[in-house]
Each structure stands twice: as C-alpha cells, then as structure tokens.
Amino acid sequence: MKKTKNEHSMLSNIIFFVKLIFKASPLLVIGDFIWGILTIVPGRLISVIGVKYIIDVVAEGERLERIFWAVGAIAAVLVTSTLLSWLYREFFWNVEKEKVHYNLNKTLYEKAKNLDQESYDNPEFYNNFILTIESSSDNIQNLLGLVRNYVGNLISLLAVAGVLLTIDPICLVIILVFIGGFLPLSRKIGDLQMERRIDNTKFHRRSDYFQRIFYLQEYCKEVRMNDISPILMERYNDAADDVIGNQRKYCKKISSLYMVQETGIQILGFMFVLPLYLGYCVLVKESITPGDFVAAFNGAHSIAISINFLTVWAVAVFSERGKMIEKYREFIKADFRIRDGEKKAEKGEPKEIKIENLSFTYPGNDAPTLKNINLTIKPYEKIALVGYNGAGKTTLTNLILRLYDATDGGVYIDGEDVRKVTIESHRNRFAAVFQDFQLFSCSVGENVALDREYDEKKVEEALRNSGFSKELKKGISTELLREFDDEGQMLSGGESQKVAIARAFYKDCPYVILDEPSANLDPVAEYNLNQAMLDAAANKTVIFISHRLSTTVNADRIYVMEKGEIIESGSHAELMAKGGTYAYMFNLQAEKYR
Above 70 in pLDDT, residue 1? Predict the structure, then answer.
C-alpha cells in the first residue's frame, strides 16, 4: 500500500497518538513505560544472570546455601514486580484508560457534530468515519500495550545484550543476520492487515444494517406483518459471505508470509544455527563455562525475542496501528465544504429571505436536484412548498439551513449571503422539524428544548400548541425511551411527532421550517395543529412542506415544485383559478373527502 502525498509516516502517527494520550493523562503514559519494564526485564535478566549464577555455584562446588539465598532473591524480585504491576493495573490503569477514552471520543464527537451533511453521502468518507469511531478505544488500548511492550523489550534488549557481549558477541551477529534478512516481510504483513480491516469495515456495515432491522423497534411491525424476512435473510447471508470471503482472502496471504518469516527466523536461525554455534564453543573451543553456556543460550533467546518484537512483530503491528491513527488524523483534520462566515447573525425579527438562481447537485450525481430556483419570502409570511416526491422540496429547505451549500446561486437574508455568517448563528435563527425527526433518550422537557436547562412553562405551552395530550407520570420530567431508564415512556408515532413539533414552538427564533409536520397525525389533530401553528407563529416566518394540500389553504404563498424547478406560485385561490398542477393535485385529494 503506497503512502499518499499527505499521509504521515508510521512513526509520526504513533508519536502523534501517544502525545494525545499523554495530554489527557501524563501519568498513564509514564506508568505504562514503568509497567512494561516491570513486566519484562526482571524475568529476562533472571533467566540469564540468575541461572548462570546458580549453575556456576553448583559447578564450583560452593556452599548450597548460596543457592537458597539466590532463589529467595529471585522470588522476591519476581513477586515484587508482579505485585506492583497488578496494583497499577487494577487501581490506576483501568480508571485512567477510561478517562483518556472519554477525552479522545469527546474530540471525535465534537468533530462529528459539525460534519457536513454531504459527508454522510460519501461512502468512502463515511466508512472511514465509522472506522475512526469504532477503533478509538481499540487504538488507545492496543497502542498503550504496544508502547509498553516496546519499552520493556528495548530495556531488556540493552540489559541482556550487555551481559551477552561479555560472554560471546558472535551470538548477537547470528541473531541480527537472520532477523534482518526477514524484516521486509513485516511491513508487507502490516499493509495486508490494514487492508483487511478497511474491507471488513465496509462489509460489516452491510451486515450490521440487517442486524439492526431485526432488533430496532421501528422495523418490528413491518418485518412481522410482511414477507420481507426471506429477502433480508438472503441479503444478510450475502453480506456475511462477503465478510467470510474477505477473511479467507487475507488469512491465506498473511499466514503464508508469517510461515516464511517464522520458518526462517525461529527454525533455521534459533533452533539450528545458534545451538550449533554454542555447542561448538562448549565442546570444541571450550571457551565458555556451563553457566556461560546456559546464560549465552538464554540470553540469545531473550535478545531474539526482543529484537523479533522490536523489528519484526512490532513493525508489522505498529504499521497497522499507524494506518488506523492516520484515519483518525484525516478525520480530525478533514476540511469540509461548508465553512463558517466571519459575522455572527442576529436573531431579532424576521427579515426578507431571497433565493436567487439557486441550483444544487448532490455529490456523485450527474443531474441537478434543484435548477435555477428564484423566490422571495417576506417577513412573517407563511410559505408552503408542495409537489410530488423527489421534486426537491426538502433539498431546498436543507440549503436554506446550510446543511448543504448551493452548487450555484445563493440564499440571502436581509440582503446578506448566509455564507457570510457563522454556521451556528445562522442555524440558530431557525427552528426545524424534519420528516425523519428523532426523539432522544432524555426527559420530555429536554426533548422539546433540546437543552439540559429549560423553561417548564414554555415547554408545557409548546406541547399544548402541538396538540400533545399524553398523560405522563412525571410530567415533562418523564424520561423518553428505555436506553437509560427501564420505565421510560414509549410514544406512538403521532405523539412522537407532536413532541418534535413542540420544538418549533419552544425555540425563540424568527424562522420556522416544518417538513411534513402532520404526516403522522389524524385529520382532527392536523386541523388543530394548523390553527395552533398559525396562532403561535404569527410573529415568525414559516416555511412548511406538505403533501396534504388541505394544510396549504391558509398559506400566504404556495410554491409548486416539479423535477427541481418551481412551476407555479401564488395563493390557494390564485392557483385554483389557474387550473394547473396544484389545482389538479388539490381536487384529486379533495375527491376523497366528498
């Protein structure tokens, strides 16, 4: 996998992420360095120096009590290092790791909160987005473990190599020759592991979709009342086959490379050449004592493990982890299309909204969704957008809200291009209720105010205006949904929509956008909502989308959209007199009630 022009090196990515962890918890990083040393170094040194000492004592016929003292000292060192490691892990590491995880995820969520809507339409970016979120905790834990083991193995290597050099330095040469010869394979293995993970994320996203269908409540009735299950199971099986096939494809390649690498280093190098050389030193040259023999062999094995980890295994894993961190850095530094303006928009009273020569094409599409839209909305007007599905009504409101930016043309409020003001201040001028609204696992009051702090009387008034009449055990403090409260209130589709509509009544802003506000309401509730909306929004400009044309009768102006263009505009009476598309649609619906 070639490194792109702006991609960082593996070392740069590792240092970057360690700095992030250090910033969140310096003691965690320092503690892990010490933990790595305590875990690895004592055992490795004892296998060399301790064993050599005991064997030399026995070979020289020294007093056996020296052996007992040596064994006691070794046991004390091992027990102490193990105890300190356990105390650190149980009473500090687990807590600090969660703090770091929280801080890093908070950064990700802050970034995600400001993502362009367009980002969700880009499959490649969205895959990386999911990969970044899902691997955040994994990055922390795995990277800390890697760095911890790296430090421990590095100190162990230096300490044991110092001892081994005093016995026979040729052992080091043998080890380095065999490991160095197979080192290039590690980078290839790391690249393949990263490719596998990226492909797995894409395939898992497909299979996870079907998993959600079978446990999310909103799909419950459709799945049980229709014969969609066989199709879903077939598609799920296809997605699962893709995941399994992908694993098989990479497992074969990675396993083959591992086999070649391990055969060359472990079997040929450390099980044949190295023992052969040590045997020669003992039997022919007689250059080492029995204690030296064991120390040299154990030391060589210890150094082999350390160098193998530091250069072969660690390079492969660091390479994979570095690429995961690269995704994190790309996500954090992503330059989005929708940019902040310099000025802060004031809420104040409604001003004139003017849309001039507005065109928009969704990323990846050839044909434009909106073509040369021109319209003017006067302060306090109630504007209706009507038309068949796919006409571009919702897209137009999304552009007004700057969830997308226009391909051509622009939106102006009081003569000022909305792109010249900050995104937050611009959107704060609007209350919006979307057709695909969502309720959150919070109290009713928090769901209406979309804030932890709220005015109770104002929430209750907003709920009355929306027609919400459900009896709640704890009033507006009642928790909705059951994510965090097993006794959370579950609402019907109509009642849920009324809570969402109440947000528009609660928010103090000059403009309201309602996308299908009465889609889940019965005719009486719809009539009451329209009356409440007109009364409560008398001092606001309202733009609403509706397929029920009975709701548009009292609109000041109606815009009829078709294939991304405005084909008619006027009041209800004017459009009925015109006898065009609007009149045809209205009469078609009215027939059902006659």
Answer: no
